[in-house]
Amino acid sequence: MVDNDELSARLDTSDEWIRTRTGIGRRHVVGPGMSTVDMAVEAGRRALQSAGSADIDAVVLATATPDQICPASAPQVASRLGLGPVAAFDVNAVCSGFVYALATAAGLIAGGVSRRVLLVGADAFTTLLNPDDRATVPIFGDGAGAVVLRAGDPDEPGALGPFDLHSDGELSDLLVVPAGGSRMKTSQNPADSYFSMQGPAVFRHATARMAESSRAVLKQVGWTVGDVDRLIGHQANIRILHATAKQLGLPADSLVVNIERTGNTSAASIPLAMVDGVNDGTLQSGDRVLVTAFGAGLTWGSTVLRWPGVTPA
Ligand code: UT7
């Protein structure tokens, strides 16, 4: 765990700036030799324990920081969990990854391809950052969270959907690691190998898109804003969460918030907020929950569910 004072000792920033501008107080950072797969395996193990069964026929890993650029990391997660030769693949929609992967897993089940899916959101996002960049280092943290999805009745608690998913590739440069992919494998400019973010522009898009997408999914499901008990938004910045709730007309206390102790954990953000929301009693069985996320790509999306009576392991 790295707190703001530790960062302020080596970067031109302060606990006061980070807290007031982002709501973040501390974040987990992977140690040397630890990776996305290591965190995903631990989260997956706990989700299987909570579900009471390791009977799984697909593993979907939402991540933008796979252990290697090729292959995907989900097969390593499946094999380290001892799940056998199950379907396993990654979904990369960066900070929207968990919502996109929920839609993917729900689609596998609805299409009869899978019966029970282990869905993990995991990112070692700090491995993408320039350690000297005060614009990104205080914002991001590492983590993993997981859920098990199964086929069920649309009226039972836990039933997911509909989904509202979008992207805008014209704005991909707003959050980007320029080098390392097929377009520019290596670069003479070290900055190209690090994640860069145009924070204020991203802030505006994040708020507008999450509010717009939330409204769209509420319309699809036939809920009014007044029907929503809890809003689980991507934990990017407490001010974005408050602004999104305000745009929707939801009270701030409907938000599930854990950003103070996590930072922005990208694809892990929503499942970690879910676990913390259950553990601190914010999320109660039967709650009508709106889930919304926004991230690099750009990507954004939303879904709804009736909160199931789950106990995190
Ligand atoms: O998860 C994917 C989506 N990501 C996001 O949603 C992130 C969206 N963006 C944000 O959350 C915010 O834009 C940030 C938290 C990244 C930045 O907050 P901001 O209020 O937009 O700050 P800013 O970039 O406009 O900078 C304001 C001032 C500048 O100083 P001047 O020019 O006013 O003198 C910055 O140089 O704050 C300065 N600043 C800092 N000061 C202390 C920027 N970063 C820091 C820092 N510590 N870490």
UniProtKB/TrEMBL annotation:
Residues 218-307 form the Beta-ketoacyl-[acyl-carrier-protein] synthase III C-terminal domain. GO terms for cellular component: cytoplasm. InterPro entries: ACP_syn_III_C, ACP_syn_III_N, FabH, Thiolase-like. Its EC number is 2.3.1.180. It catalyses: malonyl-[ACP] + acetyl-CoA + H(+) = 3-oxobutanoyl-[ACP] + CO2 + CoA. Its main location: cytoplasm. It is found in: Cytoplasm. SUPFAM superfamilies: Thiolase-like. The active site is at residues 95, 234, 264. It is an enzyme of class 2 (transferase). Residues 235-239 are annotated as: ACP-binding. Keywords: Acyltransferase, Cytoplasm, Fatty acid biosynthesis, Fatty acid metabolism, Lipid biosynthesis, Lipid metabolism, Multifunctional enzyme, Transferase. One of its GO terms (molecular function) is beta-ketoacyl-acyl-carrier-protein synthase III activity. PANTHER family: 3-OXOACYL-[ACYL-CARRIER-PROTEIN] SYNTHASE 3, BETA-KETOACYL-[ACYL-CARRIER-PROTEIN] SYNTHASE III. Belongs to the thiolase-like superfamily. FabH family. Homodimer. Catalyzes the condensation reaction of fatty acid synthesis by the addition to an acyl acceptor of two carbons from malonyl-ACP. Catalyzes the first condensation reaction which initiates fatty acid synthesis and may therefore play a role in governing the total rate of fatty acid production. Possesses both acetoacetyl-ACP synthase and acetyl transacylase activities. Its substrate specificity determines the biosynthesis of branched-chain and/or straight-chain of fatty acids. NCBIfam families: fabH (TIGR00747), PRK09352.1 (NF006829). This is Beta-ketoacyl-[acyl-carrier-protein] synthase III. The gene is fabH.
